[in-house]
Design goal:
Largest sheet: 8 strands, parallel
Strand content: 15-25%
Oligomer: single chain
Structural class: alpha/beta
CATH architecture: Alpha-Beta Barrel
CATH topology: TIM Barrel
CATH class: Alpha Beta
Number of domains: 1
Number of strands: 8
Helix content: 25-40%
Length: 258
């Protein structure tokens, strides 16, 4: 069985954190050898850092999600200092979300810019979340030189044109369980066209469980279903998707050893 990597999950979130040993065992049983546990707030970053130091197959990122309105607002220095930890392989998740937040978005855009600046200083790639904000997301990525550290457009749900612009900026495209949903034909068309050397898979667990688990708690083991869906879309074997996406993960997140 070719190894799989879950490039984006939240193992410190409930209910995954209360049964983590079982979650990790099920991941192993499904050939998932490595996971990237992604930060959404500085207050909970120590949990992620601890997880990554206790488990050699779990990596960490550091960042503050665009939807987080409470808690510490990170400076570039804060992010760069925390990213010095050897288990931190990325900056984020960061980006823009105009779906959950309304009104004046200057604060969100400035936070995003600071994350890009921190990625450039730390030499670690970005994990970008963009929802109903693709024009401003791409504009700020261009303004701030996000192509330099590169990164991934996580849980991609945008158009082929947005994918093309992100690819032109040196970014990878990651697909989650959404690509398996019945109403996601347009997204499957994008997944068919992303170059093999820029393709990643993820769960975003505990959210967005793929078919046949839609509506249930998601977990890293289920990234296999995303791989199987992409294999079907691209008319290749699942083992090929596993090989490609695992190689791409360690190419992009070059600070991750394996």
């Amino acid at each position: 069985m070719t190894p799989l990597v879950d490039s984006h999950c939240h193992l410190n979130f409930e209910p995954l954190n209360t049964g983590l040993d079982d979650v990790l065992q099920r991941a192993r049983d499904n050939g998932v050898t490595h996971m990237l546990c992604v930060s959404v707030a500085l207050e909970t970053f120590p949990e992620i850092r601890q997880l990554s130091h206790r488990n050699e197959n779990i990596y960490a990122s550091v960042g503050v999600h665009p939807n987080e309105k409470e808690g510490h607002e990170p400076s570039v220095k804060d992010l760069v200092d925390l990213a010095k930890d050897e288990r931190v392989v990325a900056i984020g998740e960061t980006g823009l979300d105009y779906y959950r937040n309304k009104g004046e978005m200057g604060w969100q855009q400035e936070r995003f810019r600071n994350h890009i600046r921190a990625a450039k200083q730390s030499g670690k790639p970005l994990i970008i979340h963009s929802r109903e904000a693709s024009v401003d997301t791409i504009r700020i990525m261009r303004d701030e030189g996000a192509a330099e550290p590169g990164g991934v457009m996580h849980c991609f749900t945008e158009s082929r044109e947005v994918a093309r612009q992100a690819l032109d900026l040196n970014f990878y495209i990651s697909f989650s369980g959404i690509v398996t949903f019945r109403n996601a034909e347009a997204l499957r068309e994008v997944a068919r066209l992303v170059p093999s050397d820029r393709l990643l898979i993820e769960t975003d667990a505990p959210y967005l469980a793929p078919v046949p688990y839609r509506g249930k708690t998601n977990e890293p083991a289920y990234v296999r279903h995303v791989a199987e869906c992409l294999a079907n879309i691209r008319d290749v074997h699942t083992e090929s998707i596993a090989e490609i996406t695992t190689r791409n993960f360690f190419t992009l997140f070059k600070h991750a050893g394996h």
